[in-house]
């Protein structure tokens, strides 16, 4: 048994090693995978070992008349979870109270099957999932959110009820400066806040001779807003309408005035650079941008061949990746024209084999 009594059994934390050995394990794995394209130092940024996850999801399982948090365990389908050491302390404190409230109300307990938690500096949001018509328990849900002092969303097939705010407010400290963000419960968020701060700070410190930035897959502006203060102008695209809505609010919150956000699929953005006209671009002249850097932070599947071909046009590439395998596949191609100059690992997920990488590449002269 390691740092948690469920380690190795709940299916989430699987790396049963002392933390310093986890670091060696991850560094060795990455060195082996990327050794042929990069012989420099792999910087490593660690995390606190507990309380680091600001988003967590659990099943809720009914047994006889009782109710438990569960995970799809490695040996058992419904492994009972009575603690999770990796979640933010606000989530850890709330979990037993929520469970008690649910257990004590036949109406709230009936056909509830999942709970998701998101915690930011000052806010906490709970999402409860039901296999029943939630409109019948509106009053009970309202009381629950008031009793617990949390924002609450209840969902069942085709229905959603919101008690309090669906938006969360976060603040990040990046190289001594505070940045404020707002985002919706469905947004992609970097799950480890302090490592996220380190990632953004590291990128900022490693930007050389900035002119304009093109950022693809920008979400609600997590990297975009702090980076915008380093560049003359920024063009950033993202497929999610809600994320772009929040990115615009985040510009206001931080006084960022030089960013053009595009609600656009990356394929369309590339077509636009190839001369195809889009209504959404009617007020933007892509030729006005003098792009010195491109930052990409794609989903786990990595970049398509077309995006890889496109980004190779730019001198400086910053590639943020949560999947070393697709990163390797993409870098094999990018490294035909670019050299890896920096490679850093960010331990967003201690006790798991996952590792986040940021690679900085420069075009060969
Ligand atoms: C790994 S997240 C990164 C978000 C952001 N950089 C951050 O740090 O929060 C990837 C983002 O890509 C967006 N996305 C996925 N497919 C896309 C596509 N084809 N075109 C544009 N954006 C896409 C997702 O909505 C998501 O916000």
UniProtKB/TrEMBL annotation:
GO biological process, alphabetically ordered: methylation; RNA modification; tRNA processing
Residues of the active site: 322, 322 (nucleophile)
Positions contributing to S-adenosyl-L-methionine binding: 190, 217, 238, 297
Record bears the keyword S-adenosyl-L-methionine: yes
Gene Ontology CC, one term: cytosol
Superkingdom as given in the UniProt entry: Bacteria
Keyword S-adenosyl-L-methionine: yes
InterPro entries tied to this protein: MeTrfase_TrmA_AS, MeTrfase_TrmA_CS, SAM-dependent_MTases_sf, TrmA_MeTrfase, U5_MeTrfase_fam
UniProt-listed PROSITE patterns: SAM_MT_RNA_M5U, TRMA_1, TRMA_2
Similarity-based family: Belongs to the class I-like SAM-binding methyltransferase superfamily. RNA M5U methyltransferase family.
Protein name from the UniProt record: tRNA (Uracil-5-)-methyltransferase
Taxonomic lineage of the native organism: Bacteria, Pseudomonadati, Campylobacterota, Epsilonproteobacteria, Campylobacterales
